[in-house]
TrEMBL record:
GO biological process, one term: carbohydrate metabolic process
InterPro entries found in the cross-reference section: CE4_u4-like, Glyco_hydro/deAcase_b/a-brl
Natural source organism: Shinella granuli
Protein name: Polysaccharide deacetylase
Length: 244
């Protein structure tokens, strides 16, 4: 397989990892699922083609049996709790937050408890007890209450911070949210992956949002998978293994 020039730095880094006997550890999180869609079908087909596990962050209040039936056909897909309703409770001028300090922590935790139970029942056998906060933001008081609800892990975006449960963050986003809202340049995403690989040996999380992907975003995912999947110097990990 001949990779385009923009992917060579990642291929070289994986070769370096293979020679050192320290495979690059990657995992994939995709946010905002609610129901079966053509975009979801594309995501599941692409990950299945390359044998890449995917953790799908599902919005509990807005989903139901249809999504559960579709994901039951996708053995590499896991399900995490994506807040409750993906509803913004922040004030004007503030960054969007559903799980912030704008409401009592007890109120927020009660919603998250309902979401945990709902998804655990709908997706038995593929449910991962991980919370993915909408907009990747959560108040410390809410974090402190997560273990009492049964959560084993928390996943936001960026460097990990100490918490009373496992933290398994994503670190590289393929979407240019502040610009085109389409795919970021492949060179920039590849550079992020290589930089993080060289900085530490922990798992690196790739973040995607299937519902907003343009053709370039799907092509970028395929490029990353082609450069990494099945390589001796790289392992795509299941989220349940990261939690367990």
């Amino acid at each position: 397989m001949t990779l385009p020039a923009c992917a060579r730095p990642l291929a070289d880094e994986i070769a370096r990892r293979a020679a050192a006997g320290r495979p690059l550890r990657l995992w994939l999180r995709d946010d905002d699922a609610v129901a079966p869609t053509a975009a979801l079908d594309t995501l599941l087909a692409l990950t299945a083609r390359h044998a890449v596990p995917v953790l799908i962050a599902v919005i509990p209040a807005l989903t139901g049996a249809a999504l559960a039936a579709r994901l039951a056909e996708a053995p590499l897909a896991g399900v995490a709790v994506h807040g409750w309703a993906h509803e913004n409770h922040a004030g004007p001028g503030e960054k969007s937050q559903e799980l912030g300090a704008h409401r009592p922590a007890e109120t927020v935790l009660a919603e998250l408890g309902r979401g945990f139970k709902r998804l655990a029942a709908l997706h038995a056998g593929r449910f991962v007890p991980m919370l993915v906060p909408p907009w990747n933001r959560i108040a410390p008081a809410v974090v402190d209450g997560l273990p009492s609800l049964g959560f084993k892990a928390l996943s936001v975006f960026g460097p990990e911070k100490p918490a009373p449960l496992a933290v398994r963050n994503t670190h590289v986003d393929i979407i240019d949210w502040r610009g085109t809202r389409g795919a970021r340049p492949a060179e920039a995403v590849i550079a992020d992956l290589v930089r993080l690989s060289q900085a530490h040996d922990g798992p690196i999380g790739l973040l995607t949002h299937h519902l907003v992907h343009d053709a370039a975003a799907w092509a970028l995912m395929a490029l990353i998978f082609e450069a990494t999947a099945g390589q001796a110097g790289c392992v795509w990990e299941r989220a349940e293994d990261l939690v367990g």
